[in-house]
Amino acid sequence: MTGHRLRQALASLASVPVTLFGLVLVTFLIGRAMPIDPVIAIAGDHAPPDVIARVRLEMGLDQPLPVQFWIYLRNLLHGDLGHSVMTSRAVTEDIARFFPATLELATTAMIVAVLLGVPLGVVAAWRQGSRFDHVVRVFSLAGQSVPVFVLGLVCLLVFYAKLGIAPGTGQLDVAYEGLVPHITGMLVLDAALDGDWDEFWDAAAHLVQPAAVLAYFSMAYITRMTRAFMIEALSGEYIVTARAKGLSASRILWRHAFGNITVRLVTVLALAYAGLLEGAVITETVFSWPGIGLYLTGSLLNADMNAVLGATLVIGLVYLVLNLLSDLAYSLLDPRVR
Amino acid sequence: MLVEIENLRVQFPTATGMSEAVRNVSLTLGQEKLGIVGESGSGKSLTARSIMRLLPSNARITADRLQFDGIDLLTADEPALRRIRGRRAGLIMQDPKYSLNPVMTAGAQIAEAWRVHRGGSRKVAAQAAIDLLAQVQIRDPARVAGSYPHELSGGMGQRVMIAMMLAPDPELLIADEPTSALDASVQAEILRLIEDLVSRRGMGLLLISHDLPLVSHFCDRVAVMYAGRIVEELPAGELTRATHPYTRGLLECLPTLSHPQRRLKVMQRDPSWLI
Amino acid sequence: MSAFTTVLSRDWLLSETPASRAQAAWVRRYRGWLQFRANGLAMVGLATVAVMIVASLAAPLLAWQNPSAQDLAGRLAWPSAAHWFGTDELGRDIFSRILYGGRITLGMVVAVVALVAPIGLAVGSVAGYLGGIVDRVLMRVTDVFLAFPRLVLALAFVAALKPGITSAIIAIALTAWPPYARLARAETMTVRNTDFIAAVRLAGASAPRIILRHIVPLCLSSVIVRVTLDMSGIILTAAALGFLGMGAQPPMPEWGTMIAASRAYILEQWWVPTIPGVAIFAVSLAFNLLGDGMRDVLDPRQR
Ligand SMILES: Nc1ncnc2c1ncn2[C@@H]1O[C@H](COP(=O)(O)OP(=O)(O)OP(=O)(O)O)[C@@H](O)[C@H]1O
Ligand SMILES: [Mg+2]
What we know:
The complex is a heterotrimer. Chain A is an all-alpha fold. Chain A folds into two domains: about 15-75, no CATH class; about 95-335, MetI-like fold. Chain A contains 13 helices and no strands. In chain A, helix 5 (about 90-125) packs antiparallel against helix 6 (about 130-145), helix 7 packs across helix 9 and helix 12 runs antiparallel to helix 13 (about 305-335). Chain B has helices at about 45-50, 80-85, 95-100, 105-120, 120-135, 140-145, 155-165, 185-200, 210-220, 245-250, and strands at about 5-15, 15-30, 35-40, 60, 65-70, 70, 90, 170-175, 205-210, 220-225, 230-235. Chain B has a six-stranded mixed β-sheet, with helices on both faces. In chain B, strands 1, 2, 4, 5 and 6 form a five-stranded antiparallel β-sheet that branches. In chain B, helix 5 (about 120-135) crosses helix 7. The model of chain B has no long low-confidence stretch (mean pLDDT about 85). In chain C, about 75% of the residues lie in helices and about 0% in strands. Chain C has one domain (about 50-60, about 85-300): Orthogonal Bundle (MetI-like fold), CATH 1.10.3720.10. By secondary structure, chain C is mostly helical. The model of chain C has no long low-confidence stretch (mean pLDDT about 85). Chains A and C meet through helix 1, helix 6, helix 7, helix 9 and helix 11 of A and helix 7, helix 8, helix 11 and helix 13 of C. The structure holds adenosine-5'-triphosphate and magnesium ion. The site of magnesium ion has 3 residues of chain B, from helix 1.
């Protein structure tokens, strides 16, 4: 029986290389379709013709497309995503520098979203049709309908400008800029590791608003799914059995109904976390949060092709891994999947 | 009397008004075996579940009297009902595939029923679960206790269900078509097991079934339901003397070896039965 | 005449014993409508969507100001009788711009759906009907497109195509079709082996004909539900592209673009970027409420 489980897990793993290859191919083709000449991006606008010709040759751009793809693939395997014009650093280096901030933001948002969204969904399902259920429903539909950038701007307006209880944009106050040592790249964590509590509180305060905006975005989804799963679970015959056994309402709700949806919920949480990447792109732009999303939009506006493609590829990769984890969770955790 | 029901009605709201699923049913049940038969949708399950107040949330229930051992079930609050559910009355449902919790082991589900009513440590309850599984004639109780429902056969699952409901030692057992989902070969075994346990422990039994001869064989009394009411109630031995045309119809529709018929009779329904 | 009144009567529509298949279908629809109507929120959604469609179609009649007429002297004005929603950073009337922006949003949504539904249906039904290697290849391609977050892939596409409304539409469509393909494939798989498809096949119909004439119509209803539920996602992605400067370009009165252009004024003249934000939110919420109500009726399991 474990053998079967393993096989199922392996089957979902087996599709990864193909999807991965497709991912890289799509990114490559987008790059080649770009109206920007990659040679000029490297050699500069005013490079003499012989330099341009040499760079073109070096980049293998005179080769047929499949060969170019092969070169792209080979560079990729060596961790070479090219250079960014905007920062004039290697794209991989840039991504390593920007990614931790996104991780910090998305993870904080995720924790908040789960801690609020799951209980809301469970209680709404338990009290299906009640006023509480309706309020939760509207609240979560609103969360799915509000554009993240509008919510972010309104938050800045209300809490920063009008009430003055929240710090402005960015990851840290200018006063502390450059004082936190680079350990994990996640400022709140680094400040704590450094033992500087002023910096820690400032970094944490800066995290609150973007994380809350992002959390609302995915909490809406988590609440909805939890509620739907719970309603289905609560209509199961085994719930009648549990009631017939004389169990208390909370035990029926959490042990029997919720116990039946945890695995599916884990897969939803993985997907929600992946969805946060998308929200992060916009949230980071609004709050000037120096993460991969800000890097992506910044390089888009500067037509910095290598950076755009690198960021897209990395986000796609993370997304793929999270989707994969969600699949694996299903085949490895659920006692019914054998 | 263990159970006393007088003029029980169960209704459901629909787009066109209330639909009556159970109408004016009256029943009493002591330490005996009562069978309820009737076709699908005749209200057997709803009647039985009313005794445990386990109706769907949109059901409206009214009765002149609905009592369990003198306790008024209509006015009883949730804690009072919980002292009856499981502790004093158990319910076995049709298909163990759906009525057992798929993500808890059989042992854990039985132990839970034990602990919630009898207390005791986890270890004691786990041991009690294994003992109970042995009592329902499972040969390898320790292994079954560690299995998930989908790893058990239908007959095995139903034994687990019975063990679970017997854990707190109830006075009444309601079995709602306990063998309909099982193979014919297992059906008799399960029924014999139920009969054996019920008579040994001196419990009351309410057995619901489609199968008139089977019920009359196992029970002391039989009530026949049609379209939400009890149309006839009689001692099991006197089934052949049934007077209601519906009961007669049910009996005559059965094929027998002693009186072979070319064509089986088809039930002729009469609207006047509804009044 | 009497036959007509019978058809329209409530009893006929609520009959427990329909006399014909057509009546049975109408009974089902009427019951669904009754259930939908009882859901107040869904009705609010429906009404808002209706108002939005009418208002944007009638924008030239309703908006008495030219949406692109600038008045630098009267810029960033607070709402007044002359300018119901005030004026923007170039002194243009925000009310008119919101109405005309509705047209752009609506147009983009319609264009995306018109592209996505046929592509998704084609890929899904062909994969589902033919099965085998075709199915595997098409589904792998679908997986690849699902492997990117929608907005990020759309951003990359737009960057490759050159920012603008057309690119935005194409990019959103390219990222939105995979779920439709999956849906159509699942539906096709369930009917592929039914007797009536076998009968059609025995009658000598070719695969394209079977797919076009018999399978696609069966997938259509679930695709329509899915489209309603997808609307708000499309609207939000379009607005996000506009906000990031990758969608509609100024001076077009697209809502996301309007916010991007005026976001610098959020702290002082806060209504200028907020009003288009509210418009996006309202329309997207309306579609969500509508879709939610429809799902309740059409899929009682509430998934
Ligand atoms: N939740 C519900 N909502 C509406 N009507 C219901 C509901 N549950 C049961 N009913 C109706 O009540 C009637 C009686 O149901 P019941 O389950 O008691 O029948 P039954 O005699 O046990 O049938 P079966 O032999 O199929 O189990 C059925 O006709 C059914 O339509
Ligand atoms: Mg029943």
